User: Fold this.
Amino acid sequence: MRHLYSLAWLPLLPVAFLYLLWRARRQPDYLRHWRERLGWAPVGERPVIWLHAVSVGETRAAVPLVKALKARHPDHTILLTHATPTGRATGGELFGDSVMQAYLPYDFPPLIRLFLRRARPVMGVIMETEIWPNLYAACAHRGIPLFLVNARLSEKSARGYSRFRALAAPALRSLAGIAAQTMDDARRLRDLGAEEVEISGNVKFDVTPPTDTRERARGLREAFRGRFVFLAASTREGEETLILDALANLDIPGLLLVLVPRHPQRFDAVARLLEERGLAYVRRGAKQPVQPDTRVFLGDSMGELAAYYATADLAYVGGSLLPLGGQNLIEAAAAGCPALIGPHTWNFSEAAEQAVACGAAQRVADAGDLAETVSALAGAPPARQQMREAGLRFAAANRGATARVMGMLEKPG
Assistant:
């Protein structure tokens, strides 16, 4: 089966490069470092520990693990691989020159062999759920222990992978270890063919905000001049329209919508949407002052979400009003920011259910319900304070996954 899968990559490789060209129309960075996608990884002088974080969320989640690996193995180089330019840029912002970075090659055997021959990792760690049969098989063949950590597998993804169980099951069984976020994730991975799965929790609870978060939050509060701040964080395409429509008729004195799209390539598109609606707005990147008539503050910057959460009176966590699976609500809880989530949160299903159950978050059914809930909570400071305290307790109670993952990585044999 894997042989047929490998043959299928022959016609797919030209399509993959056409896809890069298509994405480069909006993000020219897709064409940078393109040789790495063919296996031309950087060559280090010291032993390499390789960690793969496909995009932004996984890269941010990897921070406590990278710190732990660097502390435990100071004589090793960390190679951080990605699949997207935004993931790579985030890695650069977070780690600078303290790690090597590259794109992971396509899962075609000659490219994988070249990557492993150049990178020469002594160990590999895959964040969350990236199942690449040829990559996994090549690591097993070379005796490179490969681990899947912070693994999550939604019901939807499990159904998709189950159609290719003949590929997925051998790949999962070849791993040196799997650390799943939850019992449900572990069960789905076992159903897919994994043999031994540990439950570690979610390392995203161990992520600490950047050291300058408090200073940035103080600057934002001064810029917002005491307004009631409703943050729409990590919004996805289509959600901004829903939110703007829902909030249009709200009568909340001093309401300021802070709108932070998930993907930086959409910043300009969201700005055009605001202009088309005739809304007075300012952009973070332009360092424009917030005026009394400013309706929207467009957060068109990277790496400041923690500061926005620390500043907001109330936040909606994006990707959940539409069937997109939801974005990370753990950041909101850790910042003590009352959170609202939509009905679609399968990417963080257990964390979302726990946050709602403990009072750190409220679930809304749709955009209309979102507007009603924003209006109700804007007039109820004690309720927001209860949510804020519940979020801090929720985040603190779930820390410790990084230590459990490191324990698995360092088991003898």
Remarks:
- The two ends are 29 Å apart (CA to CA).
- The chain has 18 helices and 14 strands.
- The first helix runs from residue 2 to 24.
